[in-house]
Specification:
heterodimer, A: alpha/beta, Rossmann fold, 5-stranded parallel sheet, 40% helix, B: alpha+beta, Beta-Lactamase, 6-stranded antiparallel sheet, 5-stranded antiparallel sheet, 19 helices, 23 strands, 42% helix
């Protein structure tokens, strides 16, 4: 078994945003193993294969980047499941969204999100934001245990 | 007895014959005038035929009542008779045909009176000094004014109370006619004249309270009540009159009469229903207003068919009984509203006040006002209010729905438009950066334009969302220290644009009342604006000032930038209104609209002054903070 452990789980339905996010992360050599899923249901299936509490094939990610507006099961529900399950509670989750809605932000923090980032339209700023938060949560942040 | 036109006795009954001691044969044919009768008045003087009651009745056609006459009985004694006589008329011609004379024997009664007077030993008050003194003592002891008058109407005696009451000294009145102090009604009734003796007149009046007027020495009159009693003396009957001043009683009676009159007027005016009733429900008096209101007739009232308890619908009985309890405890109840059932079963709302009547039975007097009109008005008002509330609810729901749609719209603008824009911007830049070699200069220039526009559109969307959020955000209202807030904004701004040198001069700023987060946004937008429009100026200066007031503070931001045409100053605060071309100054035209919306929501105003090339001043007012300096 030579499966590289997953470093980042990116839950994002917009392929353009997926590409831009991956570019930003790779550009600074932050993460090489990024698992991408396109909707909330696939995210839950990845994290809890077959609905069990068995660990995913690639192991639990070190960071979850989560879009809010997702097909099938939305980002807030995925966040709620992540933060209410024993196995995943300690994984840092960053909401990465286009939504500037205050209600989304308030609800995200209430559910225990670690950071809430509004994706800038400007590509330079976007690249900067994504690489900064990858750097912070993967390399600098210390997780207990 | 019946006499004919000449006074001859034609009929007599057994009682008459027994009293007179004569048989029918002897009586028939005699006249009242017959010397055998030896008729005398009660004072002993001979009574002549023409003065006798029967003669008067026959000759004048007027009845005569209760005259006392002494008649000689065949036994030799005097019989005292009380005689009345009425004329007998022909039914057709009304001509007097004779007289009916009736009489009773009062000899025994007269003897009793005489004995009483004798026993008091005051029978001859004029001649016996001793008895006069005694009698005077009795008079003085009497609580009332006492005046003794003889048969000719002369005053014989009076007491001190009489002196005081009439304002005369005793010696001024004794020997005077009683008319001096009682001008009318006394002498006429009681003093002997041609028609009757004092005794006869007196017999009719004894023991009765007669109301007359007395006259004082100064001529003023006052109401009196006199009580008469006879006093036999050697010169005939004297009259003792007890005279009571009844001014106070008369005044009270008059006041009561006026009051009762007023009350009756009020009741009869039928502007309010009035009824008197027993506590068990039976109404025994009611005015027309009340009867008409409830649909009963006066006959039904008189037959006892009106019953307030029966008219009270069951659900109002409890309230009514509570009012009755209050009535029993306090004598009256607070006015209250209830309903009555009319005779036809319909309901009428009334306003009711009742009070307990004095006297046995503790009956009730109640005032009843028909308030149907008012109730109808109230009901209409309630219906109207309900309708209005309903409309407000509908409108509010519609507004809330519109608001939700608006929020959903801004969300989708936020999310759905920004994502494609980001792709346009990002992939254009990737093209420019990573594939520059394959592009000719014109392609790069065009791509630059694409990037610039995508970024501008991103800014527009962000500003629009800010504007809509400012309109919906819940406001904090706390005192905000404006000076440190403004200074921190300036620091951030200068850090973000290290290339620009703008001199900020921030004067002392008072605190204002508002939302700190939104007020920060106000400074950000105004300072951004100032920095932007001083771009072409060599020594850019921005002055921030404050004019504190007791109620509001006025803040101004003045720059020495390019200024604007004051004709368009009202357009500055409207979204998307720009006074400069995009090529001159970047911007979305929303910054000042956001400022205006925030300031207005916080209860202030915005304004702008300027001229082309002479800088611009933007001002806003806010409610003063509590810690205003």
């Amino acid at each position: 078994m030579n499966v590289q452990p997953t470093e980042i789980l990116l839950i994002e339905d917009n392929p353009d945003d997926v590409e831009l996010t991956l570019r930003a992360l790779r550009g600074r050599n932050i993460a090489n193993n990024v698992k991408v899923v396109g909707d909330g249901a696939l995210a839950l299936e990845y994290l809890w294969p077959g609905g069990t509490s068995k660990a995913p094939a690639g192991g639990y990610p070190k960071l979850v980047l989560l879009d809010l507006k997702l097909p099938r099961i939305d980002g807030l529900e995925v966040l709620r499941r992540l933060k209410s399950s024993e196995e995943t509670r300690q994984i840092p989750v960053v909401v990465l969204t286009s939504s500037q809605e205050e209600s989304d932000m308030v609800e995200s923090y209430r559910l225990g999100v670690n950071s809430y980032v509004v994706k800038p339209v400007d590509f330079a700023k976007f690249t900067q934001s994504v690489s900064d938060l990858g750097l912070y949560w993967l390399l600098l942040n210390k997780v207990p245990g | 007895m019946v006499q004919d036109a000449e006074g001859r006795i034609v009929e007599s009954n057994p009682t008459a014959r027994a009293i007179l001691g004569l048989d029918a044969a002897t009586l028939t044919g005699r006249t009242s005038d017959d010397p055998e009768w030896q008729t005398v008045w009660s004072d002993g003087k001979p009574a002549r035929g023409e003065d006798l009651p029967s003669t008067i009745a026959r000759t004048t056609g007027e009845p005569v009542r209760g005259v006392v006459i002494g008649v000689r009985h065949p036994s030799g004694t005097v019989r005292w008779l009380r005689v009345s006589a009425s004329p007998l008329r022909d039914a057709a011609s009304d001509e007097v045909l004779g007289a009916v004379v009736s009489f009773s024997d009062v000899t025994e009664a007269r003897r009793g009176e005489q004995a009483l007077l004798d026993s008091r030993n005051i029978s001859d008050v004029r001649e016996s000094q001793e008895s006069a003194a005694k009698y005077r003592g009795l008079l003085e002891a009497a609580p009332d004014a006492m005046v003794v008058v003889d048969g000719a109407g002369e005053i014989v005696l009076l007491n001190a109370q009489a002196e005081r009451q009439f304002g005369y000294r005793r010696d001024e009145l004794v020997g005077q006619q009683v008319k001096v102090i009682i001008p009318e009604g006394f002498a006429e009734r009681l003093i002997a004249d041609d028609l009757r003796s004092t005794a006869d007149a007196l017999l009719q009046q004894i023991g009765m309270g007669i109301e007359l007027f007395g006259r004082r020495e100064d001529g003023t009159e006052f109401p009196i009540e006199i009580m008469l009693s006879p006093l036999e003396s050697a010169e005939g009957i004297l009259i003792t009159a007890a005279i009571r001043d009844i001014s106070a009683r008369k005044a009270a009676e008059e006041a009561l009469r006026v009051a009762l009159g007023n009350f009756q007027d009020l009741v009869d005016a039928d502007i309010v229903g009035v009824f008197f009733a027993r506590q068990d429900g039976r109404v025994f008096y009611a005015n027309d207003y009340f009867l008409d209101l409830l649909g009963y007739t006066r006959e039904e009232l008189e037959h006892g068919e009106v019953d307030w308890r029966a008219m009270t619908p069951p659900e109002w009985l409890q309230l009514t009984d509570r009012a009755l309890d209050e009535l029993r405890e306090q004598g009256s109840s607070k006015p209250f509203e209830k309903e009555y059932m009319r005779r036809d079963g319909s309901r009428v709302p009334v306003f009711l006040a009742d009070t307990r009547l004095a006297g046995p039975g503790a009956n009730i007097a109640a005032f009843v006002l028909d308030i149907s009109e008012r109730k109808r008005g109230e009901d209409e008002l309630l219906a109207l209010n309900a309708e209005l509330e309903g409309r407000v609810k509908t409108r509010t729901a519609a507004l809330e729905a519109a608001n939700r749609e608006m929020e959903a719209f801004s969300y989708s603008v936020s999310h759905d438009l920004r994502a494609p824009l980001r792709s346009i911007d990002a992939f254009s830049q990737i093209l420019l950066r990573e594939h520059a070699a394959g592009l000719d200069p014109e392609a790069r220039r065009v791509l630059d334009i694409v990037v610039r526009n995508a970024q501008h559109m991103g800014q527009l969307i962000d500003d629009l969302l800010t504007l809509s959020r400012v309109g919906r955000k819940n406001l904090d209202r706390t005192p905000v220290d404006m000076e440190p807030l403004a200074r921190s904004v300036v620091e951030e701004l200068q850090a973000a644009q290290p290339g620009r040198t703008v001199e900020f001069d921030i004067g002392p700023l008072a605190s204002a009342f508002g939302d700190a987060g939104l007020l920060r946004q106000v400074w950000v937008n105004l300072f951004d604006n100032a920095v932007k429009f001083t771009g072409p100026v060599q020594l850019a200066k921005v002055e921030v000032r404050c004019e504190p007031g007791p109620r509001e503070c006025r803040f101004t931001v003045r720059d020495n930038g390019v200024g604007f045409d004051p004709r368009y100053s009202d357009k500055l605060f409207q979204p998307f209104q720009r006074l400069h071309q995009t090529s001159e100054f970047e911007g979305t035209g929303i910054g000042l609209a956001i400022v205006a919306r925030i300031v207005r929501r916080l209860g202030g105003e915005v304004w702008a002054d300027g001229a082309p090339g002479e800088g611009a001043t933007f001002g806003f007012s806010l409610p003063a903070g509590q810690e205003a300096t």
